[in-house]
């Protein structure tokens, strides 16, 4: 039974009452006009997403759905408590495995999952980032299966993207349907760039000046999320820089400007660990800054998110997050994990291979919806391919039950119809934890599809957290 967030047990849920009345009164033709207006608006602004591997990395608009998703105040309160708890535990885990390793010695997390993981950065051992924050920006993907239960599908602790779409979706709704927006008491999201900047400044090195200089480090215009990089830098009022714009001198990081070098205190990086510094990681990297890691280790600059945070969002580590919560916080998890089978375990592997037609199989270190098998929608040839892959490198794959993700009403070619969704709230961690109400709702636009990733044809919609 699929849970529909607007209509449950044959009746409209209270939080959606006004939306239902609005849809009943809105002609389909009028919605179609508004859909075209939204597409023109996004095209003019330049909100595109590069899809790699399709010949020339074509940029496309991410489909935007006009019908907002509604989250009641009490639902959000419950979810945000769980998000805060989870991110606290993930930060504690990162501090521990690069420190004393107590959770490993206690046998709560297998050592091989950490020390043999490609995201493990031994160079970070003994490191203590400013303000104790490791993953300053976390994107926690949430799915819903019924009226009461939210599940964490995965954790994104490295460079989570999508927040620009959350902000632009709200702006689009304000322009397209101002009366509908004003008829609801919606928690605002516009403060996110300000909150992000305050979080980054709060994590500046202790010895830096009272007004730290923050920059956003991007790989450049060819990156799929470049629009977001430039958008956030502009909204925060900080410089958008590439590796060539920075240099290290006398142990400090400097930015080249028309007025001469300027000291940099915090780098919000949107490039992967291995490209940050050719002297410490990938020697042929043209994206990073020579000597940056040494300056970081010496405490002269903060890098957000911290180097080595990828270990915390590895899909093979994910099953152990509930135990992290118990171990570090002494609490029971408020948000549940999806049951997960690790193909590196013989018993789990046998179970998965026997039930490939029922399960979702993912690469342990994959992202973007690539490298997945959705069992119920797969062919025999696809299952044979994954059988061979799992047998060859079992530790590289995990599997989960095929969840009946909740649906919300969407405006599609056939009219108004339910589509499956997830939610990515963004959690900011500095000297305290901040969560902007809502997040990015991603939509599987194709009928019956469970894949919401924009790289796989998914869309987005505005998420309204009601204040009362």
Q: Specify the number of helices.
A: 13
What integer value in Å does the Rg equal?
A: 22 Å
Q: What average pLDDT do the residues reach?
A: 92
User: What count of domains describes the coordinates?
Assistant: 2
Give unreliable regions as ranges: 52-57
Q: What would you call the quaternary organization?
A: single chain
Topology (elements, then pairings):
Layout: E1 7-8, E2 11-12, H1 17-25, H2 28-45, E3 49-50, E4 59-60, E5 64-71, H3 73-97, H4 102-105, H5 111-115, E6 137-144, E7 150-156, H6 163-176, H7 178-182, H8 192-202, E8 214-217, H9 226-236, E9 239-241, E10 246-249, E11 252-255, E12 262-263, E13 266-269, H10 292-297, E14 302-304, H11 321-329, E15 336-337, E16 341-342, H12 346-354, E17 359-363, E18 373-374, H13 380-392, E19 397-401, E20 407-412, E21 415-424, E22 426-429, E23 433-435, E24 440-443, E25 459-465
Parallel strand pairs: 5-25, 7-15, 8-9, 8-13, 13-14
Antiparallel strand pairs: 1-2, 3-4, 6-7, 6-22, 10-11, 11-12, 16-19, 17-18, 17-19, 20-21, 21-24, 22-23, 24-25
Helix pairs in contact: 3-11
Explain how this protein is built.
The chain has 2 domains: 7-205 and 301-334 and 417-465, no CATH class; 341-401, Dna Ligase, domain 1. It is built from 13 helices and 25 strands. It has helices at 17-25, 28-45, 73-97, 102-105, 111-115, 163-176, 178-182, 192-202, 226-236, 292-297, 321-329, 346-354, 380-392; strands at residues 7-8, 11-12, 49-50, 59-60, 64-71, 137-144, 150-156, 214-217, 239-241, 246-249, 252-255, 262-263, 266-269, 302-304, 336-337, 341-342, 359-363, 373-374, 397-401, 407-412, 415-424, 426-429, 433-435, 440-443, 459-465. It has a 5-stranded mixed β-sheet with strand order 5-25-24-21-20. A hairpin with a 5-residue loop joins strand 6 and strand 7. It is globular, with a radius of gyration of 22 Å. The protein starts with 6 loop residues before the first strand and ends with a strand. The model is unreliable at 52-57 (pLDDT under 50).
